[in-house]
Write a sequence for this structure.
């Protein structure tokens, strides 16, 4: 082989190796980017699902609180029903007035 | 194969083939077989589901006191195909549900020829309490289903039972609840999506449909009713019934300026919590509110409408007079005064104060004629429902000259409230127009609608029309004040100028009017000249001595008896300067 031939072929080999390295680097970077994107997507989806579950769970709690609230409202209304208040007033010694006189007291300076 | 290039080519080829197989399989799964696999998934997890039953809207009185609410309860069911030991299951549930062991065992025993994989679900109990549900949950039975639902509850018991009414599971019902069910019922849609094993929507389904798992509750209503006044007049209706040995009594309290019904009561009443028992006994007529559904002939209270029409049309004035001979022949009948007496020369004041049938018939037949008379009858709302928010409101019966069953005598008898049928609410609404300077307001019960998102819509007072001019109304107010002061002093209330008119109506029966059976009524408003309240007292078939059954002897004095406390509850102060006008 002549010197010139060796120089030429060596130069060709060097260029090929360089190209392959560049290609490998690009592929590697692409793989890393894709992996990162896929990971981010999966993380986002997992987070989304987790949050949805969390929201649903809280809304279910809210529904339970709402139900408890309604039950308490009924209980309060039952305790303050007119019949019960009248009975309590009677127990305390009050009785309906025989004669009702509606008196309007004028307070000096008060707006009518 | 020893050359590195050849080995590399082989490896690349194998990898390419493996990739091809994987890609091919992916294409098969994702593209070619997509429809089939999607169907399989849908069959497994895609189901119709319903959100928990929403609570129907609540009903409050004008001051925010709860009248109708919702108690949280549960419906219980069982997937009996999953039960391995029905005996043990029945023994565990029976004491908690308070059900007979035998019945429960029959329900929980799976069918004998049950196919493998088939699900059989059966209801066990309805509307159990939260405490019972907790005890059931503690048993940790996988086959037991607890569905949250609601029980309609009336914290005030039978207070305002007729007004409030109820609805059945189909949404049909009586009273305010029956009329307003479209607003009160919550949103309970059938939805579809991916569900869990117990048919609850997956969280992902809810996120994709942007749908909360909370049911949308119905609208709440704030009424114009005042529960304290309502309780008071219900007690008064009971007292009046007892005091006059009557069949029943209706009392309505209304604000003439707005048309707000402050209280509306009838006695006897029913307990809405026991409606199922009444249904079983076939007593469904008991549910209809007598104040808006039961027709009666108004009698002499209707003379106010006759006089109002004649005055407003300009056909008579305070100087007008007629000669009362004690009888008037018209349309083949002879109209006589309530006592058969002749009263000689009379004017409008005498007509109303002495409640002269001959005078009223003279106005309708000789002065007004059918066209003018019935124009005013219709303008005051008779013969048509008022539109109050109560289911089943009656329109009343008004015969017109164009009707096939018209008789000429109607023109004479209608003038003093015979041969015409009205509801108590129609009568008080017409009187309210006189009290409100001629403007007739829409009688209503709903003051405000509150939406589930916290916003609210206030229902404004709505005029129905102006049947008479303001000056006519004010003239009539004075005539009615004097009628009370001169002829019905037993209806006067110290400190208040009261305008009113009594009525004693006969009750039509088979072949004529019932002997000695009457409806005594009194409709009053005050304090004149700025009336803030109209009150109707109607006593059905008083059973005391026949000569003491007139409206002036029953409803009028009873009004005077109940009015002072009523005015106090309504915050209407007495005017010390209120004097009896000469």
């Amino acid at each position: 082989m002549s010197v010139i031939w060796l120089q030429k072929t060596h130069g060709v080999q060097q260029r090929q190796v360089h190209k392959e390295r560049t290609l490998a680097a690009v592929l590697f970077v692409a793989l890393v980017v894709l992996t990162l994107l896929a990971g981010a997507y999966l993380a986002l989806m997992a987070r989304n699902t987790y949050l949805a579950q969390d929201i649903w769970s809280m809304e279910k709690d809210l529904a339970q609180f709402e139900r408890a609230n309604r039950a308490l409202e009924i209980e309060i209304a039952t305790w303050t029903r007119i019949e019960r208040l009248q009975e309590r007033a009677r127990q305390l010694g009050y009785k309906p007035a025989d004669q009702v006189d509606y008196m309007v007291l004028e307070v000096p300076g008060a707006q009518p | 194969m020893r050359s590195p290039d050849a080995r590399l080519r082989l490896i690349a080829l194998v990898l390419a083939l493996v990739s091809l197989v994987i890609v091919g399989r992916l294409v098969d799964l994702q593209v070619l077989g997509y429809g089939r696999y999607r169907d399989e998934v849908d069959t497994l997890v895609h189901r119709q589901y319903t959100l928990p039953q929403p609570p129907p809207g609540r009903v409050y009185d004008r001051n925010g006191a709860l009248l109708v609410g919702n108690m949280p309860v549960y419906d219980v069911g069982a997937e009996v195909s999953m039960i391995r030991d029905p005996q043990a299951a029945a023994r565990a549930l029976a004491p908690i549900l308070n059900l007979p062991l035998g019945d429960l065992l029959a329900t929980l025993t799976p069918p004998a020829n049950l196919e493998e994989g088939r699900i059989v679900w059966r209801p066990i109990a309805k509307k159990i309490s939260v405490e019972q549900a907790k005890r059931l949950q503690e048993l940790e039975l996988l086959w037991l289903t607890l569905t949250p639902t609601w029980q309609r509850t009336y914290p005030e018991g039978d207070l305002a039972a007729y007004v409030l009414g109820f609805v059945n599971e189909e949404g049909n019902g009586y009273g305010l609840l029956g009329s307003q069910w479209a607003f009160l019922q919550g949103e309970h849609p059938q939805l579809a999506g991916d569900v869990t094993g117990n048919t609850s929507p997956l969280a992902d389904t809810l996120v994709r449909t942007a749908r909360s798992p909370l049911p949308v509750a119905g609208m709440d209503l704030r009424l114009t009713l005042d529960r304290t006044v309502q309780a008071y007049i219900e007690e008064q209706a009971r007292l009046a019934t007892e005091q006059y040995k009557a069949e029943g009594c209706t009392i309505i309290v209304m604000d003439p300026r707005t048309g707000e019904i402050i209280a509306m009561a009838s006695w006897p009443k029913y307990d809405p919590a026991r409606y199922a028992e009444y249904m079983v006994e076939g007593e469904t007529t008991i549910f209809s509110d007598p104040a808006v559904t039961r027709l009666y002939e108004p009698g002499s209270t209707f003379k106010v409408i006759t006089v109002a029409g004649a005055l407003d049309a300009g056909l008579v004035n305070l100087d007008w007079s007629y000669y009362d001979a004690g009888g008037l022949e018209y349309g083949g009948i002879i109209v006589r005064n309530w006592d058969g007496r002749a009263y000689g020369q009379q004017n409008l004041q005498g007509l109303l104060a002495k409640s002269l049938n001959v005078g009223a018939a003279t106005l309708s037949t000789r002065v007004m004629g059918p066209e003018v008379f019935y124009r005013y009858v219709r303008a005051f709302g008779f013969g048509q429902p008022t539109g109050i928010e109560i289911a089943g409101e009656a329109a009343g019966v008004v015969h017109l000259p164009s009707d096939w069953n018209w008789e000429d005598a109607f023109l004479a008898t209608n003038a003093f409230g015979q041969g015409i049928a009205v509801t108590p609410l129609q009568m008080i609404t017409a009187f309210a127009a006189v009290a409100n300077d001629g403007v007739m307001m829409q009688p209503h019960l709903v003051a405000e609608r509150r939406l589930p998102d916290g916003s609210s819509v206030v229902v404004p007072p709505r005029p129905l029309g102006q049947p008479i001019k303001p000056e006519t109304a004010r003239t009539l107010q004075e005539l009615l004040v004097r009628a009370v002061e001169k002829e019905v002093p037993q209806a006067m209330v110290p400190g208040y100028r009261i305008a009113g008119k009594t009525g004693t109506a006969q009750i039509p029966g088979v072949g004529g009017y019932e002997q000695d059976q009457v409806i005594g009524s009194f409709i009053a408003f005050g304090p004149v000249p700025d009336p803030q309240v109209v009150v109707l007292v109607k006593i059905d078939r008083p059973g005391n001595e026949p000569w003491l059954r007139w409206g002036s002897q029953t409803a009028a004095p009873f009004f005077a008896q109940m009015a002072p406390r009523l005015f106090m509850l309504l915050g209407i102060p007495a005017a010390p300067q209120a004097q009896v006008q000469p």
In short: The first helix of chain A runs from residue 3 to 79. Chain A has one domain: 3-91.
